[in-house]
Amino acid sequence: MRIDLHTHSSYSDGTGSPAQVITEAAAAGLDVVALTDHDTVSGWPEAQSAADAAGITLVRGMEMSASWGGRSIHLLAYLYDPDHPELVRELETVRSSRDLRIARMVELLGADYPQLTAEFVAEHIPDGATVGRPHVADALVSAGIVAERSAAFDSILRPGSPYYVRHYSPDASYAVKLIKEAGGVCVFAHPGAEKRGRIVPDAVISRLIEAGLDGLEVDHRDHTPAQRDRLRAIAQDADLIITGSSDYHGEGKPNRLGENLTAPHMLERIVAAGCLEVVGW
Ligand code: AMP
Ligand code: FE
Ligand code: FE
Ligand code: ZN
After folding, report:
1. What are the beta bridge partners of residue 60?
2. Would the CA dihedral through 91, 94, 98, 100 be positive or negative?
């Protein structure tokens, strides 16, 4: 059984619609796929219809922005109540902070790259999407300023660039607690991805486990073999769920569907612990 528990659609920074992601997942020979857009569940209904039609199993998820000290952390939340008031409010706050932050970044960029007006960048943000730097990267590509998304991330959009602006995200322990209160299963996304910025030490993972963390995404292309070994050992020690996934972003990243997979018995644990049903499981 081929299970991929981390993908993005055009409701965040993936380039395909939820239906497209599902169709591609079926074509890639996946049996189970999770849609995990950043800070939103807007893609769930379309993804579920497409999954039902394609005969593939959908796990409804979301990738929540959080922070520890100054470091950005991503938490995968699976099968949680999307109407939990406190979590809904928190995600709305994150998304509006993302809007303000991108507006400010575009203002700063516009001073040096006059083509980059707010209107021009807005053309690269799909309706209803959680806004992120990848959308600005797409605008930079279509203005001919950089060749591709990753080139923008290596230069103009990297933290430390004069155009970089942070956005609000909740403290990671609080975010884990909210996801658990909402009946969800919480898996730390790419906790060993050193090239994204400073990763958190083992002690922070321990604190998140105390807050209710259920699992670690161990197999991810941004992890070196040494990071995978480290994370697998932590997970086994604490009897956490271990996942592997592609973090598919369509054409926005080289990540291919199914390039890392999750074991069926690990998915069993997620389904058993989550408060939502998985159709067809
Ligand atoms: P943001 O959350 O707006 O700060 O942007 C971070 C997002 O950009 C992450 O969710 C990644 O999916 C995406 N990202 C990070 N690095 C790259 C890269 N080199 N190429 C394409 N997308 C990237
Ligand atoms: Fe992303
Ligand atoms: Fe992420
Ligand atoms: Zn992701």
Report:
1. 35
2. positive
**Could you tell me the two tokens for 139?**
């605008």
Give CA–CA dist 56/25, Å, rounded: 8
Residue with CA nearest ligand 1 atom 13: 134
Nearest to 228 by CA among 208, 213, 245: 245
Is the CB of residue 98 less than 8 Å from the CB of residue 64? no
150 CB near ligand 1 (under 6 Å) = yes
Residue 19, both tokens: 């239906």
For residue 169, what pLDDT is reported?
98
Low-confidence residues of the chain: pLDDT under 70: none
Q: What is the pTM of this model?
A: 0.98
CB of 149 shorter than 6 A to ligand 1:
yes
Max Cα distance, the chain (Å) = 54
